[in-house]
Design goal:
The protein is of the alpha+beta class and 92 residues long. It has one domain (2-85). The chain has helices at 2-6, 9-26, 32-48, and strands at residues 58-59, 62-69, 72-80, 84-85.
Length: 92
């Protein structure tokens, strides 16, 4: 159980992506480009692994945050990446 608390690759990956998203929004110390590249690299890997079968040739991602304002739920799109061409062989 101790090992699972410390070594959980899926959870570690999710936390890393969340920290990349946070840095991208804040653009802490100019890490915006690095964070964008890390997120894109993982999306391309998932496409190559067949997670998103039938993906097109181009990729764009957005960071949307959901918040509650009074009795409404509001979605804020805080980042929209550039459209990039997928690397050769990334899509099925």
């Amino acid at each position: 159980m101790i090992k699972r608390m410390v070594y959980n690759p899926w959870r570690n990956e999710a936390l890393f992506i969340a920290s990349c998203a946070e840095r991208l929004i804040k653009d802490e110390m100019g890490y915006g480009t690095h964070s964008t590249n890390e997120i894109i690299m993982r999306i391309e890997r998932d496409i190559a692994d067949g997670v998103m079968i039938g993906a097109g040739q181009y990729l764009q991602f957005r960071l949307a945050f959901i918040s509650r304002e009074d009795d409404r739920i509001v979605k804020h799109v805080l980042h929209l990446s550039d459209i990039i061409e997928l690397k050769r062989g990334a899509a099925s």
